[in-house]
Design brief:
Length: about 80
């Protein structure tokens, strides 16, 4: 059986609006993971993004529930400025 969804969050979220928000958060987190080297010590993430160690750990885990889309886009902006 093949399941085909354009946005998997349509299935897992309570509304289509929440599904769109979750997808945007997920896409932003994927972009952050592509830009940031999580193999370096956590203090590297703290210094590069100006976040707390707790926030850096949540980023490392990909915890999209811990951040707003504004925060994630701000992190992406900081990472692209540094490169």
């Amino acid at each position: 059986m093949k399941l085909d969804y354009e946005n998997i969050f349509d299935v897992t979220s309570t509304s289509s609006k929440q599904a769109a928000v979750d997808k945007e958060l997920s896409d932003a987190m994927i972009e952050i993971h592509a830009l940031l080297d999580f193999n370096k010590p956590i203090k590297n993430t703290v210094n590069v993004l100006g976040v707390t160690p707790s926030q850096a750990r949540n980023l490392t885990k990909g915890d999209i529930g811990s951040f707003s889309i504004f925060e994630l886009k701000t992190f992406i902006e900081r990472l692209t400025k540094n490169n």
